[in-house]
Amino acid sequence: MKEEKSRSKVQLRYSGKILRHWYWCVLLCLLLLCLTAGVLYVDTIAGCIVGVFSIVLYLTIVVLDIYYRPKVLLELLDFSQRFGGVEKDLLDEMMIPYGFVLPDGRIAWMNEMLCEMTKRGSDCHKSISSVFPELTAAEFPQAGEQSEKEIDYEDRKYRVVMKQIQLHEVLDGMDIAELEEKECSVVGLHFLDITELAHLQRENYEQKAAVGLLYVDNYEEAMDSVEDVRRSMLGALVERRITKYVISAGGLIKNLEKDKYLLVMNRVSLQSLVDDRFSLLEDVKTVNLGNSMNVTVSIGIGTDNGNYTDNYEAAHVAIEMALARGGDQAVVKDQDKISYYGGKTQRSESNTRVRARVKAQALRELIGARERVIVMGHKNTDIDSLGACVGVCCAAMHSDKPVHIVLGDVTASIRPWVNSLKDNIEYSEGVFVNHEQAIQLTNENTVVVVVDTNRPSMVECEELLYLTRNIVVLDHHRQGTDKIENAALSYIDPAVSSACEMITEIMQYYENGIRPKPYEADCIYAGIIIDTNNFMAKTGMRTFEAAAYLRRFGADVTRVRKVFRNDMDTYKARAEAVRHAELFMDSYAISVCPSQGIESPTVVGAQAANELLNIIGVKASFVLTDYSDKIFISARAIDEVNVQIIMERLGGGGHMNIAGAQLSGVDVDQARVMLKEVLTQMTKEGAI
């Protein structure tokens, strides 16, 4: 009773939507007043009667309002208090751990579930990072935003939903306290237990299918290198090694042909092979029953590409990639991501030229059916690229087709050769064209031949690749993820020493052979000299046969050597690069080549990298050159390290022994740090 009396003395008034509810009563009273005036105008007595009733109604409404207003407002107040208490109890007893944190990271409040989870009381005001190390104030969302983060806590996994709440919006219009600027908001944290969900997701991921293809690279050659009575035993032993390796990982293997296998496994089995870095690649080489040639295998696996059919198609792409890169490696295609493993040994050179003969005939037919030929190499054209272009020109001229070589900036390394070619009538006018001229000359009836590269981003004029479907790729570099698609003719052989060697073999089988002029033979021969480092790297029987073919048509070793001589500044720059080299991890020589005052510093850097290999203990050399706002890395090795896979980590590529990369947006010191990090990481992984 006392409480009700004290409440009745409180001055309460309607406001908000409740006050607006009474507007209808006032409106109805006004309408009744208008009705009374109308009736009074028609009949005085009737009007007076209606007026009396209107007054009685008005007085009744006023009396009832005065009597019931405090009672209604007090009932609303009681309901509000009781509802607020229910809300607080529901929030505190909510079955989801929930709490508030101040912007600086201090815990403001926790409900019972969060207290039970953290084993702390609701009065705990420690930093949130002291309770959950993975949560910091720096990760809190901005005003009005919401963010999520997954954390691990006591063998459970939680998704934390964080939302910032502005207190001035909640307390707007309520004069209960003054909020300091730094405490004008709190962050609400919901902890959703997703341990079971994460477990199911992981199980679903681990059981996804992976389909693979395994090819024995040199099955016939290995069998031919062993005695007849041991061939069946060698084949059985190789098959046993392969089968045992796949089954031990939990996979299924089926023999398709004598040197081809189909693999089926889940992601868990695939991950075990990846963690093992496909040790089968090295293990199968140890099989020896008197065979002079080690057996090597290539593996292509497709996974997470959809159904079994999609994974099988991805496996086909992966195995083709592995073979195009020289074999003896594994390629995993996981959707758009392609990973490479192995590839540590040099691909053995094939003694047969059947493939070169077939490609030469296909090239002759393709050129003969089109009206003109445009040939180009890679950007920053070197002598191997130019020499291969000249070889294609010889083939096109032999077929009486107009031919053009696309050149950008002519560097000092190829300027003598370009000038030598222009001094002859066949190359004097119209053969060498720039990018704009080449684009104007290219149409659907044009053959575009790309030499010494298979990456669209590296060609001299990439626009030409989209102006015709008659594209030919002739290259000796290993393929990467970025490759020229839908080529009408593709001849990529990483076992060949140079593009010039490749084009020389094609010339020999191109319509009863081509007879190059001496100056053309010199240019092609020079490309072989450069890429083999004077016949000391990647040199095989076919390399000397190609050199002998060019020598037979007038290639002069003395003339070529004179052109390769350097001026004094270039020689000093190369010597400086060698002198300031550092030995990293006791195996890798790293140096910087000076570029000031040198017209072709990248060529000098490559020469310095070759020189560093002459130092005892150096497994690979890397020379960095700052040129044209980029950092060029020339990588060289003899046989112990695959520098191609190292350069691929930096966005480059090449051969096992000769590779390179270009870095943009960094200086020399940053590039050196990046290179060292890659070498350190790959050494830990066992990739090199």
Keyword list:
disordered N terminus; 23 strands; 688 residues; six-stranded mixed beta sheet; six-stranded parallel beta sheet; single chain; 26 helices; 45% helix; 20% strand; alpha/beta
In words, what does this structure look like?
There is one protein chain. The chain is an alpha/beta fold and 688 residues long. Helix content is 45%, strand content 20%. The protein contains 26 helices and 23 strands. A six-stranded mixed sheet has the order 7-8-6-9-10-11. α3 packs antiparallel against α4, α20 packs antiparallel against α21 and α23 packs across α24. The N terminus is likely disordered.
Low-confidence stretches: 1-10, 173-183
User: What's the total helix number?
Assistant: 26
Strand order of the largest sheet: 7-8-6-9-10-11
Distance between the termini: 90 Å
**Overall shape:** elongated
**Estimated structural class:** alpha/beta
**Which radius of gyration do the C-alpha atoms yield?**
41 Å
- Average of per-residue pLDDT values: 84
**Portion in strands:** 15-25%
Largest sheet: 6 strands, mixed
Compute the number of strand runs: 23
Q: Please bin the fraction of helical residues.
A: 40-55%
